[in-house]
Each structure stands twice: as C-alpha cells, then as structure tokens.
Specification:
The protein is an alpha/beta fold. The chain folds into two domains: 8-98 and 211-263, Rossmann fold (3-Layer(aba) Sandwich), CATH 3.40.50; 102-208, 3-Layer(aba) Sandwich (Rossmann fold), CATH 3.40.50. It has eleven helices and ten strands. It has helices at 18-27, 49-65, 76-89, 102-108, 120-124, 126-135, 149-154, 161-176, 193-200, 210-224, 244-255; strands at residues 8-12, 33-37, 70-73, 95-96, 113-117, 140-144, 181-184, 205-207, 236-240, 261-263. The strands form two sheets. Strands 4-3-1-2-9-10 form a six-stranded parallel beta sheet, sandwiched between helices. The radius of gyration is 18 Å and the shape is globular. Bound molecules: D-glutamic acid.
Length: 273
C-alpha cells in the first residue's frame, strides 16, 4: 500500500456530514477525503426511506467511481434508510454508518432521562428502534424532529432567531422532564452545539457522535491496510448537487479550510460519471 492510503468517500444530504468530516480530518489528516453533499435533495428527513435509499445507492456508486474504497454514510437519515441495503449491494466495500448515540447516553445519564434530536425518517427506521430496544431499557427517551432546523443550518444561520426558536421549542419541554443528556441524531446539529448548550445549560451533556465515527473509520482503514502514513495533509475534494458557490462559502466557514468544490447535476435518478 502506498503511503498516501486510499481515498475515503463521505456523503450527506448537504453540509451536515461536514461535522463528521471535520472530526475525520483532525484524526486522519493524511487521508484523502472525497465529500458529496446532495443539496439538490436536502432535507432528507421528511422524505420516504425508499427515496433516501435510492439516492444513497447512486451516491455510493458515484463515490466508488471516483476512487473511494471506504464509504462513511455521514448522515443518520441515509444510514437509517440505506445502510443495510448498501452493505448487501456492495459487499466488497466497508461502510461506516451513523446511529443515534443512545447507548453512551443511556450509560451515562444519571436521571435516566435522555433527549434525542433526529429527523422524522431516522425515527421511523428500524435502526433507531433496534438501538432503543437494545440499549435504552430503564431510560426514558424524549424525541423531537426540530422541523426546519436543517434548512437554517444549510443557509448558515447557526445563531439566527429562527434557529433559536426551533431549538427552544424542542429543548424546553425536555428540560422540564429532567433530561441530563441530549443526543444529536443528525449530523447537521453539531454546528449549533454552542446554542444548544446555551439553552440547556452546562449541567446537561450534549453528545456529538462525530469523534467516535472518525475513530471507527480509522479502525477500518487500519484493518484493511489503507491508513495514509505520509506527513503531508491528504487531499480534500467536495462535490455538491446544488449550487457551487454557496457550498464553497459555507464549507470554509464550517470546516475552517477551503478546498475545490465541483457541482454535478442529477439526471433523473442518475449521477454523471
Ligand atoms: N444530516 C442528516 C442526518 O444526519 C440529514 C438531515 C436532512 O437532510 O434532513 O440525518
């Protein structure tokens, strides 16, 4: 294996997966990372699982054509809709997926009352039901889908009045129920952690799964002998199915570095080569 390892493909409905990519960049700075944001279809959360599954399969094919060897589904909604299907369809490809971090929340909550924030599709999926069944017995879970929040974050309004209103509407009733832990079950939400923490106060822990996902990615790369070993930073490249310049702008802001951005168009249900 060459010192530069293999490229890792990462995808999300939009900019949310950048919260995962940011953690990967910090843990795996030498790895080449190729990111796809499906902004033509964001938000995924209110869509059917079947529709999100079809998008996810085609995006995976696109990333594999571009040389990715391992795929990180940096989207809870796409993981809920498609992770199992992707593993069956591409058996030779290792996948890292997201699931709401109910397990560490249930293990560490002292009040045994936990708030979970995720999209409607994530809550509908079998993955979430199985996580709750396996890990949350004895813990009371309070759920909210934060309608409209993904759009606010896509637009870069991380501290806007509407963002605050959506978060307060969800979190205040949870606080009244004595939650002491909030699980971020959507990769867009870590970008509003400062506001969430301000609303819930310092005594409530907010769980961002991104560092754990980066560690799992590193474990899989090591297992396959694909970990980049060189000193220099890996190459970052970004593709959006939406307009390029707003993506490039928010990318620099959310990631703290800039990189080339390419625009692609869906042609009915297909992406170009
Ligand atoms: N960032 C995504 C997730 O983790 C998708 C949000 C959306 O597009 O609704 O669920």
């Amino acid at each position: 294996m060459s010192e530069s390892g293999v490229p890792v493909g990462v995808f999300d409905s939009g900019v949310g997966g950048l919260s995962v990519l940011r953690a990967m960049r910090s843990l795996l700075p030498a790895q080449d990372l190729l990111y796809f944001g499906d902004q033509a279809h964001v938000p995924y959360g209110p869509r059917s699982l079947a529709e999100v599954r079809a998008f996810s399969e085609e995006i995976t094919r696109f990333l594999l054509r571009r040389g990715a060897k391992l795929i990180v589904v940096a989207c809870n909604t796409a993981s809920a809709a498609a992770l199992q299907h992707l593993r069956l369809t591409f058996p030779q490809v290792p996948f890292v997926g997201m699931e709401p971090a109910v397990k560490p929340a249930a293990e560490t909550s002292r009040t045994h009352r936990v708030g979970v924030l995720a999209t409607p599709a994530t809550f509908q999926g079998a993955l979430y039901a199985s996580v709750v069944e396996r890990f949350a017995s004895g813990t009371t879970i309070f759920q909210d889908t934060l309608p409209g929040l993904v759009n606010e974050i896509e637009a870069g309004r991380l501290e806007g009045a509407e963002t605050r209103r959506i978060l307060e509407k969800a979190l205040r009733p949870m606080l009244a129920e004595q939650i002491d832990t909030v699980v971020l079950g959507c990769t867009h939400y870590p970008f509003v952690i400062p506001l969430i923490q301000e609303i819930v106060g310092p005594a409530v822990q907010v769980i961002d799964p991104a560092p754990a996902i980066a560690r799992q990615t590193r474990r899989l790369l090591e297992q396959h002998g694909w970990l980049a070993q060189n000193e220099a930073n890996g190459f970052l490249s970004f593709v959006t199915s939406g307009p390029v310049s707003p993506f490039a702008k928010i990318l620099t802001r959310l990631l703290g570095e800039s990189a080339p951005v390419e625009g692609v168009r869906w042609n009915s249900s297909n992406l170009p080569d």
